[in-house]
Amino acid sequence: MDLLSAWPLTGDTRLRDELLAAYADPARGYHDTRHLTEVLGRLEDLAAHGATYERVPVVLAAWFHDAVYDGERDAEERSAVWAEMALADLVDAPLVHEVARLVRLTETHRPEPDDRAGCALSDADLGILAADDARYTEYVAAVRVDYAHLPDEVFVTGRRAVLRDLLSKPRLFHTAYAQERWEGPARANVEAELARLAAAQPGGEQPGDQLA
Known about the structure:
- The structure is a single chain.
- By secondary structure, the chain is mainly α.
- The chain has eleven helices and no strands.
- It has two domains: about 5-130, Hypothetical protein af1432 (Orthogonal Bundle); about 130-200.
- The chain has helices at about 5, 15-25, 35-50, 55-65, 75-85, 95-105, 115-125, 135-145, 150-170, 175-180, 185-200.
């Protein structure tokens, strides 16, 4: 996918380029331009397989959802605030509100069943969990880069908390296509990673950081 042409707004490339620069920060691991490209690609895949959602707010939210990512707390909130400030003079207020709402939703990935936009974005963001073995291994290693400032023990404990939270969900995915195609592989990947981490660090409970 060509990210330059995937930008959904006409007449403003400055903001697009600022966001691309943020995702291209060399300090980032997983939450980089490849992740953005994959999320946008999964949104197209979902739409091609029957998911219905309003394209512009969802695509804009995908662009902003990890606009701020520094391994610290409240990255989704800070990304949403950036969206609110940057879009205020470019689109109407209801669209700004919807984009910010969707960005904030990616902190929990728990959309309401009737929230078509939220379901699509959440599924596209979590779709990496259903990747093949090679890509999933790359993903796990890249997440560790995002949290390179944390010692191994703290990272492993926090990562285990994230994986347990994922497995506690009645379902990881919300659109019909993602449930059919991604749910099984994703749960298998998460369970396998959790087992590896448990073997590496028996016991230990969870800090509040969201290491995903």
